[in-house]
Amino acid sequence: MLSTPEIVTRPDQPFAAIRISLDRGDIPSKAPPLIGEVAGWLASQGAAPVGAPFFSYLEMPEDGPMVMEVGFPTATLLAGDSRVRTGTIPAGRFATLIHTGPYDGLYEANVALGEWLGKQGIPHPMPEAAPGEYDAALLEIYATDPADEPDPQKWETEVAFRLGR
Asked: Boundaries of each AraC effector-binding domain copy (predicted)?
């Protein structure tokens, strides 16, 4: 189930994340374990997440591996290391919707948000326009922790496309 899309404005958001290159089919097996790794890294830094974990899709070529980050928002910009990078998702306007249900419906949620923007006549940059950067962020924010809510039909994930300043 999808909520009604909307446009929201967000402030700069510091984050800590691990960047990986992988094939689309490997996301379910390779990306989720990184959530715990980033959370552990934050704890080792004496920091804590200030929101739900996210996946950010930074490069999505038609063929070949994609580049994504798995991370958490943080209260301040931290110093990263060779494994965990830190940065800031720039302030700006975002198109968002909430997908309620299993994660296998997230592709369709992303497509639906893109189609909604098209019907509104609102352009949105794709990651290929600024590869590896957050100026064209496509985010999935995992609001529901499956450890707390075992029923996948109740999982909520926010899909957000950054539209610019």
From this structure: 3-164
